[in-house]
Amino acid sequence: xxxxxxxxxxxxxxxxxxxxxxxxxxxxxxxxxxxxxxxxxxxxxxxxxxxxxxxxxxxxxxxxxxxxxxxxxxxxxxxxxxxxxxxxxxxxxxxxxxxxxxxxxxxxxxxxxxxxxxxxxxxxxxxxxxxxxxxxxxxxxxxxxxxxxxxxxxxxxxxxxxxxxxxxxxxxxxxxxxxxxxxxxxxxxxxxxxxxxxxxxxxxxxxxxxxxxxxxxxxxxxxxxxxxxxxxxxxxxxxxxxxxxxxxxxxxxxxxxxxxxxxxxxxxxxxxxxxxxxxxxxxxxxxxxxxxxxxxxxxxxxxxxxxxxxxxxxxxx
Length: 317
Prior knowledge:
Layout: E1 10-15, E2 25-31, E3 39-45, E4 52-60, E5 67-68, E6 76-84, E7 98-104, E8 111-116, E9 119-121, E10 127-129, E11 134-141, E12 149-154, E13 164-167, E14 175-184, E15 195-201, E16 212-217, E17 230-237, E18 244-245, E19 250-251, E20 257-261, E21 270-277, E22 288-292, E23 302-306, E24 310-316
Parallel strand pairs: 1-3
Antiparallel strand pairs: 1-2, 3-4, 4-11, 5-8, 6-11, 6-22, 7-8, 7-14, 9-10, 12-17, 13-16, 14-17, 15-16, 15-21, 18-24, 19-24, 20-23, 21-24, 22-23
């Protein structure tokens, strides 16, 4: 994939199966406009514990429309990957933040995956795009969004904002929170120590006064124009008998890509990001943390982390 991308390509990869593997694999390219931008969908239907998932990828420099990832199947969608340059943009007038985000349009017309670079307003009040690339992927769990919840974190002026509680603990341990959006501005992602994550707190401390799920980050606002960075999170309440797993964070050294499997065993699983640490300031479509869906039914998910990044994840089976 080139490191400069301005047009878009759509690729569709479908996999359908039942609990007894009664279906068959199908693979087809729907259309291709250019060879650089990529939108990818994978579909799997599994056992009664987790009825299935969709997987999508989308990357652009300037597309504000987003990729429609709506489904007739009840679903909850979260981020499974982010890469590129989120260290550009602003929030005022005709500005645009750089963002990787799963969200809805207004009025509500479905679920969309957004990934685009930042823009500024010039002296003629005209938007000027920076043409920085942002690449994002989303996993959509076949779990009704009406049973899910979440929230957001926003940077403060002159200091780091405290964690934001987004959900209580689930006594059945079937709730898992994931990142669902990163909105970057100039200077927000310029350091290897920058992070955004969700955390589960079973005990209290100075910044987590009650138990529960929190979204937190150490991103800073722009001191010159007052623009704010934002982090969004969504909590998925999985059905009974779902097994939720997570493991140690996955890291990569400078200029190195580290790809590791994050699932194993039989059955169909779905995975997404719970945290990322590192400087997201490179015009490189793969410089970040990207989870990949399996290429075969029942295959394992992998996580690729590049260039001094660390990623945290969780999977449902």
